[in-house]
Amino acid sequence: MDTIEAKKNLEIYKRNLKWLEDYNHLFSDHTFKTECLREEKILKARIENLENAFDKEAKRNKAATLR
Questions:
Q1: Which tens digit of pLDDT belongs to each residue from 3-58?
Q2: Cα 42 to Cα 48: distance, rounded to the nearest angstrom
Q3: Model pTM greater than 0.90?
């Protein structure tokens, strides 16, 4: 895993998620709201996957240094 690129992507995903969560859908149509919710789910899944990958990488590196 390219950690530098993954960290950049993680920041972008978090920024986009925050923007979507803060967006006011008061005058938006149902289709747009649905698409925003779908995109939020996708971003949350990607963020979770990247964070889990970072945790696994850290554990792997810690185990390797303890040997």
A1: 899 999 999 999 999 999 999 999 999 999 999 999 999 999 999 999 999 999 88
A2: 10
A3: no
Please name the residues in contact with 46: beta carbons below 8 A apart, sequence gap of 6 or more.
Answer: 9, 13
What whole-number distance in Å separates Cα of residue 62 and Cα of residue 55?
10
Helices vs strands, H then E, count in the chain: 2, 0
Domain boundaries, the chain: 29-67
Q: By CB neighbour count within 10 A (0-12 exposed, 13-18 middle, 19+ buried), where does 43 fall? A: buried
**Residue 44 in tokens:** 């949350």
